[in-house]
Amino acid sequence: MSEYVICPYCGHQNAREEEHNIDMKKYGKTCFSCDSCDKLFTLRDDGDGEFVSN
Ligand SMILES: [Zn+2]
């Protein structure tokens, strides 16, 4: 697991919080609100690695 998640809109590195890791374990996905551009994106894990979708 990486420590940062890159925003797909602006490329900002958003810090990954404990709540994100909990969501990933529970639901296989978690939502981020970018610190830089305020847009929402989703980090998912389909069992074959994590990826960002918007
Ligand atoms: Zn952004």
Q: What is the fold's blueprint, element by element?
A:
Layout: E1 4-6, E2 13-15, H1 18-27, E3 29-33, E4 40-45, E5 50-53
Antiparallel strand pairs: 1-2, 3-4, 4-5
This protein binds zinc ion.
Share in helix = 10-25%
Number of domains: 1
Sequence of secondary-structure elements: EEHEEE
Q: What ions, cofactors and ligands are bound? A: zinc ion
Any idea what the shape is?
globular
The major pleated sheet works out as: 3 strands, antiparallel
The residue ranges in which pLDDT falls below 50 over 5 or more consecutive positions are none
Provide structural commentary.
- With about 55 residues, the protein is of the alpha+beta class.
- It has one domain.
- It has one helix at about 20-25, and strands at about 5, 15, 30-35, 40-45, 50-54.
- The strands form two sheets. It has a three-stranded antiparallel beta sheet with strand order 3-4-5. The protein has a two-stranded antiparallel sheet with strand order 1-2.
- About 10% of the residues are buried.
- The structure holds zinc ion.
- Zinc ion binds next to loops.
Keywords for this structure?
54 residues, alpha+beta, two-stranded antiparallel ribbon, binds zinc ion
Give the structure's gist in a few sentences:
With 54 residues, the chain is an alpha+beta fold. The chain is built from one helix and five strands; from the N terminus they run ββαβββ.
